[in-house]
Amino acid sequence: MLGRALNIFAKLLIVIFLLLLAYVVFAVLINLRDEPPSAAAVEFEQAWNNRAAVADIDNGYLFLLGFDVAEDEDPKAIGRERVKWSNAVIAALTEDSVDFPQPGYSVAEHLPAQFGELVQLCRDITHSCVIAIAEQRAAINEWQQNNHWVNDRYRQLIAHKGWLELSAVDIRLPLPKYADVMQAQRILFMSAFAANPPVINLEFGQLLDSDLQFWRLVLKNTDSLIGKMIAASAIKNNFLWANHFLRGGGQLLPTTSHYLAFSKDEMSMYRCLVGEWQFAYRSYQSQFDKQLTKTSEKLVMGLVHKKQDTINQMAERLQTLEQQLDVPSDHLEAAIIAYEQTQQQELAGHTTLDYLTRPYNLVGQILVNIATPAYSNYFARTQNLEAFRRGLLLSAEKIQGQSTAASVLVSPYPGKPFVLDEQQRSITVRGLGNGTSQLTQTYFY
C-alpha cells in the first residue's frame, strides 16, 4: 500500500515537473523576440518629430528657459546655450542629475523685506492682497523704479507669439525656472495696480489681454504636463487679477481673449501626452541597461524583458487615456468616472496569477503598470479653465448690472453649477478633479 502511494506521488511530481518545464520552455520561446513598433508608438514618434517649427525670434520657450538670469544677461541667448548644453549632456550619457552651468539670479532673495512679504501675501490674489497693494503703493512704486527690468523682462516674455520646447527630454536635466516666471507675473500685476489704480484703465486691460494670450499659447503648444499645469495656473491668476480690475471700475475690451472660449486644441492633452511618452521612454532606455553589469544578469533579463514591447505599451496606454478623456466638457465628468473605474479594475487584475498567465515581457508589464500615474486630474484642471472663464465673465455682467437669470454664462459641467452668494456678492466656480485647491475659483462683484 505504501509502495503504491509512493509510486503515485512520484508520478505526480514528474507530471508537475514536466508541466513546469513546459511552462518555462513556453515562456522562453515567446520571449525570444521583441515586438516591432506598434501603431501607437509610430504615431507618437511622428507627432513628436512633426511639430511645427518656430523661429527663435518668436519662440517664447527660449526666452523662458533663460528667464532667471541676471539683469545684464540676455535670456534668449542663455536659453539657446542651455538647449545646446542639454543636448550635450544627453550625448555624454552621464548618469547624474545636473543643473544649468549658467548661474541664475533670484529676484526673491533681493526683495526688500516689506515688499517680499507683500509678494508672498499675493500668492493668493484676494481682497487682503489688493488692499495691501493700495496701502503700500509708495513702496511698490519705489521698488519698481529701481528694478524696472524685472517687469520689463516679463513683458518681453509675454510678447512672444510662438512656443516650441527645444530642450532634450531627459530625467537628468533641470526644468525651466517656472517658479521665477510665476513670481514675475505676480510682481508685474502688483506693480500695475500700484502705479495706476485700475479704474477704467485701458493699459491695464491690455496687459491682462497680452498675458492671457501668451499663456493660452503655452497651454496649446507645451509638450509637458508641468508646462500645461503652469499655463493653467497662470491663466487662473490672470482671471483673478481681471476680477479685481473689473471691481475697481475697469472694463475688458470687447476683443480681449477673455471673451474667447477655449478651443479644442487648447484643451487637448494630446501633445503633452506625446511629450510625456518621449520623456518616459527615453529615460527608460537610457537608464535601464546601466543597472545590468553582469552577462548573466543581461541574459536572464533578456528572457523576461522586451524594450520595444514596453515602449509600445507606454504609447498604447497614453493613447487610450487620451481617447477616453479628451472629450467635450459636458461629458468629462462621466468620462473620468468610467476611466477611474477601469483603472481600479485593471489594478485589481494585476495579481501574480495574472502575470503568470501572460508571461511575455513580464518586466515590461510591471514597469508600465507601476509607472503610469493617475492622469485624470490633469485633464480636469485643464478643462476647468473654461468654467473659470465663464465665471469671470458672469462676475463682469453682475458688476455692470447686466446679468439676468437667463444668462448664457453657466458652468460647462451639468453636475457643478456656479454657486452664487448674494450676501457675500460672490460666484464660486467648482471644477472637476480631487485633492487640490486648484479646482475652485471665487469671483466677487
Tell me briefly what this model is:
The chain is an all-alpha fold and about 450 residues long. It has 19 helices and 3 strands. The protein has helices at about 1-30, 40-50, 60-65, 75-90, 115-120, 125-135, 135-145, 150-160, 180-195, 200-220, 225-245, 265, 270-290, 295-305, 305-325, 330-350, 350-355, 360-370, 375-400, and strands at about 420, 425-430, 440-445.
Commentary on this structure:
The chain is built from 19 helices and three strands. The chain has about 450 residues and is mainly α. The chain folds into three domains: about 100 residues, no CATH class; about 200 residues, no CATH class; about 60 residues, no CATH class. Strands 1-2-3 form a three-stranded antiparallel β-sheet. α7 packs across α8. It is globular. The mean pLDDT is about 85.
Q: Helix segment count? A: 19
What best-fitting shape do the alpha-carbon axes yield? globular
Mean pLDDT: 87
**Structural class by SSE content:** mainly alpha
**Gyration radius, to the nearest Å?**
27 Å
- Which runs of at least 5 residues are low in confidence (pLDDT < 50)? none
**Roughly how many Å apart are the termini?**
94 Å
SSE arrangement, N to C: HHHHHHHHHHHHHHHHHHHEEE
Number of strands: 3
Query: What helical percentage do the residues reach?
Result: 55-70%
Largest sheet: spatial strand order? 1-2-3
Strand percentage: under 5%
User: What number of structural domains do the residues give?
Assistant: 3
Major sheet, described briefly?
Answer: 3 strands, antiparallel
Keywords:
globular; about 450 residues; 3-stranded antiparallel sheet; transmembrane; 3 domains; transmembrane helix; mainly alpha
